[in-house]
C-alpha cells in the first residue's frame, strides 16, 4: 500500500502548506482526534507531538544545516593538501556522487514508506541481522559527528573567551547545551533552529573569507619579514595525506544519512528531492567559493578549523558568529540517533505519540545517553581535523556512497532480466562502481586519519585527551 493511501486526507492551505513551519495550519482531524496515520510514527494525534510537520522549505534548511557546519571549516586545509585544481575537481566529483545518493534516498523512501533511518534500510536489504548491524554503525557515526561538533564548539568558546578556562570545561558545557537543544522532540520544531544555525555559520565563513582577503598576511604567517604562502595549483601530498584530505571533503557532504529522517518528517515526502537538489546546489557553491578564496589568500598558513586564519581579533569575531551554528549541528546530529533509539523502544506503544511521563523519561534518557558518549569521544580525540577525517573515511563513505549504490541495485536488480537498455546498464555499473569506490576510500581514508591522530599525539605540543590546553591555536 502506498504512503499516500494510508493517510487521512489533509486539506490544503495554499502556500502555507509548504511553509517552513506554521502552527496555525491544522490538518484534518477525525472523530477520535487522529490527524494522520504514518507507517513510522503510527497514529499522530491532536494532543501529541506532530512528527509530520516539515515543509519543503524547512527541509531545505535542515538539509543545509546537516551539511554545513563541520566540513566547511576543514575545506581550505584539504585544498591546501591536495592543491587547488585536484582539490576542486575532487570536491565537484564528491558533490555529484552525493547528489545522486540524495536522489536515491528520496526514491527509496517513497518505495518503502516504513523507512525512518538507514537502520530500516539495513533491515529491508539484509533482514534482522542487517538491522542490528546498521543500527550500531548509524548510531556510532552520528554520535561521532556530535563529538566532532562539540570539539568545534569548544574551540569557539576558547577563541571567544581567549582561553577563559580549561578546555575540558568547555567540552562539558558544549555537551550540556547540545543535550538541552536536542531534547526538542520533533524536527518540525527544530527547523527554526536550522535558520539560526545556517545564518550563523554562513556569516562566520563569509567574514573570515573577506578578512583574509584584505589582510597583509595570514595570522599563522611570520609576523615580520618576507613570507611565502606556497600556493599550489597541484599539491604533492603523500598517499596518507591525500586520503585524509579526501575524507575531509567527503564529510563536508556527509549529511546524507540524515536525509531519511528529514524525508520521514516532511508533510509531503514526494517533495524531498526538490529540497535536496536546491540544498546541494547551494552547498557546493558555498564550498567552492569559501575554500578557494581562503586557501588562495592563506596558502600554507591556513588554519584548521579555517575560522582561525584571519588573526586573533577576527578569530574571536568569527567564532562568536559561528557558535550558534556549531551548536545547531550538535543538536541535529544528537537528536537523530536519540530519536531512532526512542522509536525502537516505544514503537507499538501508546507512549510513542503521547505526552506521558514514560514518553518523556525514555526520550530524555535516549538524548542524555547519546550526549554522554559524544562527550567522551570529544574529550578522547580532541584533534578537530583528524577527527573530521576519521569520521568521513570510516562512516561517511559507507553511509553516503556505498549504501545508496547498494540501495539502487537492490530496488532494480530484478530489471536486469527484462531491461536491456543502455541507460539501465550504465546505472547498474555506475552504482556497482560506487560501492567499490566507497570501500577503497573507507580503507585508505581511515588509515590516513588514524595516522594523523597518532602523529598529533606524538608531536610536541599536540593535543591530548581531556586536556586543559587551548585548542583554538591548533592547526
Looking at this structure, what is the CATH superfamily?
Amino acid/polyamine transporter I
Strand order of the largest sheet: 1-2
The CATH topology comes to Amino acid/polyamine transporter I
- The count of β-strands is 2
What does this structure look like?
The chain has helices at residues 56-67, 71-82, 84-111, 118-161, 167-182, 187-214, 239-251, 256-264, 272-298, 312-346, 357-380, 384-412, 422-458; strands at residues 34-38, 42-45. By secondary structure, the chain is an all-alpha fold. It has a single domain (51-221, 235-473), classed as Amino acid/polyamine transporter I (Up-down Bundle), CATH 1.20.1740. It has a two-stranded antiparallel sheet with strand order 1-2. A hairpin with a 3-residue loop joins strand 1 and strand 2. The termini are far apart. The relative contact order is 0.18. Mean pLDDT is 81; it is low at 1-32. It holds the Pfam family Aa_trans. Keywords: Membrane, Transmembrane, Transmembrane helix. Residues 1-23 are annotated as: Disordered. It is found in: Membrane.
Amino acid at each position: 500500500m502506498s504512503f499516500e493511501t494510508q493517510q487521512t486526507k489533509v486539506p490544503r492551505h495554499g502556500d502555507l502548506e509548504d511553509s517552513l513551519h506554521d502552527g496555525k495550519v491544522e490538518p484534518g482531524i477525525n472523530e477520535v482526534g487522529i490527524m494522520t496515520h504514518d507507517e513510522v510514527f503510527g497514529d499522530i494525534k491532536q494532543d501529541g507531538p506532530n512528527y509530520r510537520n516539515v515543509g519543503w522549505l524547512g527541509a531545505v534548511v535542515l538539509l543545509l544545516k546537516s551539511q554545513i557546519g563541520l566540513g566547511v571549516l576543514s575545506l581550505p586545509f584539504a585544498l591546501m593538501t591536495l592543491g587547488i585544481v585536484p582539490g576542486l575537481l575532487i570536491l565537484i566529483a564528491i558533490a555529484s556522487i552525493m547528489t545522486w545518493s540524495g536522489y536515491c534516498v528520496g526514491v527509496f523512501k517513497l518505495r518503502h514508506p516504513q523507512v525512518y533511518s538507514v537502520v530500516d534500510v539495513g533491515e529491508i536489504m539484509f533482514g534482522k541481522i542487517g538491522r542490528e548491524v546498521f543500527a550500531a554503525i548509524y548510531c556510532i557515526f552520528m554520535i561521532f559527528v556530535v563529538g566532532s561538533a562539540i570539539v568545534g564548539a569548544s574551540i569557539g568558546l576558547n577563541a571567544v573567551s581567549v582561553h577563559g578556562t580549561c578546555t575540558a570545561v568547555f567540552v562539558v558545557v558544549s555537551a550540556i547545551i547540545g543535550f538541552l537543544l536536542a531534547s526538542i522532540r520533533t524536527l518540525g520544531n527544530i527547523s527554526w533552529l536550522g535558520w539560526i544555525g545556517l545564518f550563523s555559520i554562513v556569516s562566520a565563513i563569509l567574514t573570515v573569507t573577506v578578512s583574509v582577503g584584505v589582510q597583509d598576511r595570514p595570522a599563522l604567517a611570520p609576523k615580520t619579514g618576507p613570507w611565502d604562502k606556497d600556493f599550489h595549483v597541484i599539491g604533492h601530498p603523500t598517499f596518507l595525506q591525500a586520503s585524509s584530505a579526501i575524507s575531509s571533503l567527503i564529510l563536508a557532504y556527509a549529511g546524507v544519512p540524515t536525509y531519511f529522517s528529514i524525508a520521514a518528517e516532511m508533510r509531503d515526502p514526494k517533495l524531498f528531492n526538490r529540497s535536496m537538489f536546491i540544498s546541494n546546489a547551494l552547498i557546493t557553491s558555498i564550498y567552492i567559493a569559501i575554500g578557494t578564496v581562503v586557501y588562495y589568500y592563506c596558502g600554507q598558513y591556513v588554519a584548521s578549523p579555517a575560522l582561525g586564519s584571519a588573526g586573533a581579533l577576527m578569530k574571536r569575531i568569527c567564532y562568536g558568529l559561528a557558535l550558534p551554528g556549531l551548536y545547531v549541528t550538535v543538536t541535529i546530529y544528537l537528536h537523530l540517533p536519540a530519536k531512532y533509539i526512542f522509536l525502537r523502544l516505544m514503537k507499538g506503544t501508546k507512549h510513542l505519540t503521547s505526552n506521558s511521563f514514560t514518553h518523556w523519561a525514555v526520550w530524555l534518557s535516549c538524548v542524555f545517553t547519546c550526549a554522554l558518549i559524544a562527550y567522551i569521544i570529544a574529550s578522547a580525540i580532541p584533534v578537530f581535523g583528524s577527527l573530521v577525517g576519521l569520521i568521513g573515511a570510516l562512516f561517511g563513505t559507507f553511509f553516503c556512497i556505498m549504501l545508496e549504490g547498494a540501495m539502487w541495485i537492490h530496488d532494480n536488480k530484478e530489471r536486469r532480466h527484462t531491461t536491456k537498455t543502455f541507460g539501465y546498464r550504465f546505472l547498474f555499473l555506475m552504482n556497482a562502481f560506487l560501492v567499490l569506490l566507497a570501500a577503497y576510500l573507507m580503507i585508505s581514508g581511515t588509515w590516513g586519519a588514524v595516522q594523523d591522530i597518532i602523529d598529533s599525539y606524538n608531536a610536541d605540543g599536540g593535543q591530548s585527551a581531556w586536556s586543559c590546553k587551548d585548542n583554538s591555536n591548533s592547526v
